[in-house]
Design a protein that fits this description.
six-stranded parallel β-sheet; 24% strand; nine-stranded mixed β-sheet; alpha/beta; Rossmann fold; 361 residues; Dihydrodipicolinate Reductase, domain 2; globular; 2 domains
Length: 361
Amino acid sequence: MSRAYKVVVVGMGKRGKHHAVAFKNSPRFELAGISTRDPARLAQAAAELGNPRTSTDPLALAREVRPDVFCFCTPPTVRLDLIKAGIESKAALIAYEKPVALSMNEAIEIRKAVQAAGVKTVVSHQHRYGQHYQKVSEIIQSGALGRVHTVYAHSVGWMLHLFTHLVDYVRWYNGNAEAEWVMGQAAGRGKLSDNHPSPDHVAGIIHFANGVRGYVESGAGAPDVPEVDYWWRKNRIGAQGTDGFAEVLTGAGWRAVTKGGAQSGEGCMNYDLDMPPYVEDMARWLDDEGKVHPCHGESAYKGFEITMAVLRSVVERGQIQLPLGPGEPEMAAINKVLPDHGVLLSIEASRKEYPTAAAKA
């Protein structure tokens, strides 16, 4: 029988519990320890998860347990220190929440650290495990769209919550082709103080090496997806080709039009369905170096690089070539250039027209 890998999960908010439950329910893993700063929350989570080892100090817990997998689900203000904790614990794989970092400088430092340590990383872009996301991928890969020339995605969720999700999926739908350059625009200062700091509205153009053009838009001014009821699921991602299009709605299935006609199907983001295969693929990668996780850290790094390039384009008012090197932290730079008069009228109109998204944003 295949071995069960020991896991420590740091962060016992909603996403941390999603991860902990998925690891606990898998025969391939042993939930060996959990950590969070709040003692009361930690005690409650431990009782719900079968009473694994607990500590409010994640590094101390990791040193004690020596996990195979060090997983953390914390706000993006805590990234590099926990990456270092995972490396110090001698974990073979570090799994963590998107975004990869809060700046390109930090992402570069994280990348260098895990590469030097030889540690695998996985980042939570797990929506791709949804049956509707998978169906659109199958249609694209079948050739039914002809020559794909455009990939696109938009969401009413703000950038550091959802932009890297969107970029990850358009890269997937474009065969993970390398991006060559990016141009972007942004507006609105309302979300710059959020724990996922972002302009209110961000739009980017991505030129890929295979000639495909990508369009990604996120925030209060992005198009609504009226078929979907909740802001987090109001995402539309797809591809257009010479013979048709196929797209997924995170909260409302998939649809396509090809030479064979129109077709559609069901599907909705569902952590109970998406998390088990997401963690199972971690075990497969630990078993076999050749079975690289679909959400591996290098792919997430490239998506984050595109995201930060969009912001640099806003600051520098021009085309940004990839790959990116270090520079002024993007949020500090964007804070200097966005106008003080607030959100554009089109964004305010969007909030009024779609109050569900506006209230949650």
